[in-house]
Specification:
This protein has about 60 residues and is an all-alpha fold. The chain has a domain at about 20-58. Helix content is about 25%, strand content about 0%. It has helices at about 30-40, 40-50. Helix 1 crosses helix 2. About 0% of the residues are buried.
């Protein structure tokens, strides 16, 4: 089972509602941003993703 914890405490009240989508990697948060914050490289982030994630190649 996969799980993730997202700290949204800095967002204004009402920004998120039940069922809101969270962008993990995309135009507003790059793979390089994630890798830097995790203290690793982008290759490690990509190879750590499971097969059940939705991928959209553009």
């Amino acid at each position: 089972m996969d799980s993730i914890t997202v700290d949204a405490s800095a967002l204004p009240d009402g920004t998120l509602t039940l069922g809101s989508l969270v962008e993990v990697i995309g135009p507003h948060q790059t793979l390089e941003d994630i890798a830097r914050d995790a203290g690793t490289i982008s290759y490690e982030i990509l190879t750590s993703l499971g097969h059940r994630y939705v991928r959209q190649y553009r």
